[in-house]
Amino acid sequence: METSAVEKQPETTTEAKEAPSVVRTKRIMVAIDENDSSFYALQWVIDHFSNLLLTTEAVEGGILTVVHVQSPFQHFAAFPAGPGGATAAVYASSSMIESVKKAQQEASTALFSRALQMCRPKQIRTETIVLEGDAKEMICEAVDQINVDLLVVGSRGLGKFKRAFLGSVSDYCAHHAHCPILIVKPPKEMTK
């Protein structure tokens, strides 16, 4: 009768032990721009999550995705023309458009260079993404497209009045991103 008790064990127990465990790589996204508060947030992630992001021989670490969103270039500007106050659209030349795009590309390269230098000492696996459009909307779209586990953004410390008129990327992302979000506020001496 003892053998029948052994025979009644479910077969799934053996299969569960043999099946390889699937561990999805963790992905943390940090949004950066020209403000020091975004680089403070990046450094905060490096200091506090480097063990989660570090890849060793035994463990596949996570990925730190650094994203920068460029404002789209407006190809025209409206200027008042004539005595009646009518406006006319003036279109930018192709050389001006190329010049602006080159300047944006150089600015993004400089930002990413700074970010990668910050990550290098901890040997964090990092990828960079440049997007174009409205920063808050593009960040939330990127979160969905690449399945981010945690979004980290800096806070510029805008007051209620400025935030109401200028809008806040961190505030928008906190309400619209489909993942946990961490808003890192810099120390008070940085915001002055």
UniProtKB/TrEMBL annotation:
Pfam families: Usp (PF00582). This is Universal stress protein A-like protein. Residues 26-185 form the UspA domain. SUPFAM superfamilies: Adenine nucleotide alpha hydrolases-like. Gene3D superfamilies: HUPs. Transmembrane segments: none annotated. InterPro entries: Rossmann-like_a/b/a_fold, Universal_stress_UspA, UspA. It comes from the Eukaryota. The lineage of its organism: Eukaryota, Viridiplantae, Streptophyta, Embryophyta, Tracheophyta.
